[in-house]
Amino acid sequence: MYLYAALVCLIVLIFALRGVSKLLALGPIPELAAHADPPFLDFPVCDNFFPKPPGVVGASPGRTEEEEHRMPSSPIRRSDVVYTAVATAENGRDGRVATDDGKLDVVVNPPKEMGGSGSGTNPEQLFAAGYSACFQGALGVAARRENADISGSTVTAKVGIGKNDDGFGIIVEISADIPNVDETTAKALIEQAHQICPYSKATRGNITVTLD
Length: 212
Hints:
3-stranded antiparallel beta sheet
């Protein structure tokens, strides 16, 4: 009886193997292939597994073009550095900060809104100064590309600080006054400058930066 059962199992196995071999010989079943994504019995392309790095033209799957622009830029290498600024702080937000060449040497104090004396400058003002100057330079690059006249233009950066879910965070508003171009051109130049500016690249994807 056990021999009979084993023989039946062997016959079933043989027929099953013959059926599989026939399917493989026939190739993909048309009805399934028509609905398969990726194609039936085919391998998906590698791009589906490895997202495009920043800088690749075109938005990556699942991200809009606007979101792609917010992606951090590729970092530069040490060998690419042409200038390094050096500053040293004493006593944090309520002390002094100076550059190694002595060109900047200021007292820093928390603003009155944060419970300080407000008599000195603060990191937010210094960041706003640096960002606005850098953005103005990037605006000049964009203007030269578009052959636009930005003489007499100004850039203002507003840096706000406040509490978030893990301490404090900052938010930035950038506005530019470009008197010699129309509103559409001004907006386009500001958008281009935001893609060029190293400060914008450094903060992209980390803090909220709005353009006006």
